[in-house]
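TASK: fixed-backbone design
INPUT:
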């Protein structure tokens, strides 16, 4: 077993003794469950399209090691380098996000992907989320430090522009995540109550507006409130999978419902987990996501640097909220929403974007991170 002395002043040595090793261990455990569930859920999906049974698994096993390496590499970075990386990722992903309207691939009525030869497709909005959280944090922190800095205005403009692009695709779920992360940062930085109230009213009005403007949103809400009003095949099938699995599951590879669930390897991967491994394992996975999120928020609250506090809060909220939306929609606690479960659902864009998210989160929540920052 390799041991790193506490007085080791190398980059790796300092990283090992300052990084949140508990959060890192939980993230590695989530990735391990991702490997297991990809093997369990992807073969039926591949067979339905006439492909090799393990084509999705093979692709995911390329992306997950890259995601792990990316997470570890970014976690070594200083806050200054995290900001620079976020700026580069944000600029590139916004350009690609705009290009989806020109060269994007339309799937189920939405243009969210750009086809890349050999890599299936890329979803730019996945990369916008973590980078925007860091940039917004920097702008808000600068605005608080320098009273005349237009940080609030610039942050609002950037978030507004991204939300406009997302809604044009349309992608309401991703828009909600971006808005919720920004709202969490505004709450932490401190705003007058009337501004917070205006934001709550504005958010509620936006949801009502989306209900009347987007037919797919209206359909999902109607089916959620009244299941008999439309097709709830995937959600009902997912619930059947959970019932079949009970507490301890039917066993690895013994699930039958996954063969009838079109999105079993992506949006409804937890249903496969519920059927084959049972409620206990599902709760363990839920606990891992909650643990990583709470560790990020706990460490962020102890920071003396406002930028690090805001950025770590935004990244932690994003990680936890995306997982919560995926799992809640699977068991019909909220209207169905196509959103991947970080590091577990199949998807290269999601795996790499989440690697950037947790890598930056681990970097910013390292002990004494504020002493490493050169603003």
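OUTPUT:
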């Amino acid at each position: 077993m390799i041991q790193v002395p506490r007085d080791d002043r190398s980059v790796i040595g300092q990283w090992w003794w300052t990084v949140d090793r508990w959060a890192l261990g939980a993230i590695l455990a989530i990735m391990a469950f991702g490997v297991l569930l990809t093997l369990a859920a992807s073969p039926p999906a591949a067979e339905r399209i006439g492909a090799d049974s393990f084509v999705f698994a093979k692709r995911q096993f390329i992306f997950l090691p890259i995601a792990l390496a990316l997470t570890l590499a970014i976690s070594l970075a200083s806050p200054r380098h995290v900001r620079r990386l976020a700026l580069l990722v944000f600029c590139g992903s916004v350009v690609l996000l705009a290009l989806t309207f020109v060269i994007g691939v339309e799937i189920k009525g939405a243009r969210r992907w750009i086809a890349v030869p050999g890599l299936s497709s890329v979803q730019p909005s996945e990369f916008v989320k973590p980078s925007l959280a860091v940039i917004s944090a920097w702008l808000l922190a600068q605005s608080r430090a320098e009273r005349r800095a237009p940080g609030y205005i610039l942050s609002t403009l950037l978030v507004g522009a991204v939300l406009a692009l997302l809604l044009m695709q349309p992608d309401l779920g991703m828009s909600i995540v971006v808005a919720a992360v920004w709202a969490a940062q505004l709450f932490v930085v401190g705003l007058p109550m009337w501004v917070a109230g205006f934001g709550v009213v504005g958010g509620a009005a936006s949801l009502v507006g989306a209900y009347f403007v987007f037919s797919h949103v209206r359909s999902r809400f109607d089916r959620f409130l009244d299941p008999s009003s439309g097709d709830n095949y995937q959600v009902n099938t997912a619930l059947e999978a959970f019932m079949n699995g009970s507490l301890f599951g039917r066993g690895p590879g013994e699930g039958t419902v996954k063969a009838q669930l079109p999105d079993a390897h992506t949006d409804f991967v937890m249903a496969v987990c519920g059927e084959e491994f049972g409620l206990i394992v599902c709760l363990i996975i839920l606990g891992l996501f909650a643990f990583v999120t709470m560790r990020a928020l706990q460490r962020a609250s102890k920071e003396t640097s406002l930028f690090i506090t805001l950025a770590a809060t935004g990244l932690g909220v994003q990680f936890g909220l995306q997982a919560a939306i995926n799992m809640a929609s699977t068991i019909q606690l909220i209207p169905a929403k196509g959103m991947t479960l970080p590091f577990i659902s199949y998807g290269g864009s999601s795996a790499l974007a989440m690697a950037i998210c947790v890598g930056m989160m681990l970097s910013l929540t390292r002990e004494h991170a504020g002493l490493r920052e050169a603003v």
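COMMENT: The mean pLDDT is 85.
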